[in-house]
Amino acid sequence: MTVRDESTALQAEFTHLEEEHGTSTLGALVADSGIGIGEWDRMYSIYATTGNILNQRLGTDLRWSGLPFDDSDVQVFMNKGKVVYAFLDRTPRHNVENLKYATPQSVVQARKFTPKPWDGGYQPPDYWRAEIESFAP
After folding, report:
1. I need a labelling partner for 127 at 20 to 30 A (CA). Which of 69, 108, 115, 117 fits?
2. What does each C-alpha distance from 83 to 10, 55, 119, 132, 134 come to in angstroms?
3. pLDDT, tens digit (0-9, with 9 covering 90-100), for 10-52
4. Residues 74, 93 contacting (CB under 8 angstroms)
């Protein structure tokens, strides 16, 4: 399985949702991006630099290529237990919680965050991040 480079089209869908302070579903964002995943029923976010880590987490026995050698996550889309698409997700990441998964029906909602003040009293501006509803296996 080849891990593709990050999808700028999908990233743009998340960015638009954040800018609009909106709500959608993960399935709608993926479909609107046009990245052509096909049918999928689960998405996992896995920090992995080796195929062994991915196979262990996903219960697969695949040969992986294109894995990151940096701090990127691998977003893996599966359908009925088989990997159908995988890509690198670099900062800013849009991922699901560790050891959980999302579905096409998962709600994606922009949430406002207020960073902690820096030393010296500077208050960085608030920002919006898309959070993906996730479920425990």
Report:
1. 69
2. 18, 10, 45, 20, 18
3. 999 999 999 999 999 999 999 999 998 999 999 999 988 788 9
4. no
Bridge partners (DSSP) listed for residue 82: 79
Q: Around 125, how many Cα atoms within 13 Å sit in the side-chain half-sphere?
A: 2
Kindly report the average pLDDT of the chain as a whole number.
91
- CA 24 to chain CA mean position, Å: 15
For residue 29, what is the enclosing H or E element?
Answer: helix 26-33
Residue 14 contacts residue 94 (beta carbons within 8 Å): yes
pTM, two decimals, is: 0.88
Domain boundaries, the chain: 4-132
- Give the pLDDT confidence score for residue 93 in this predicted structure: 75
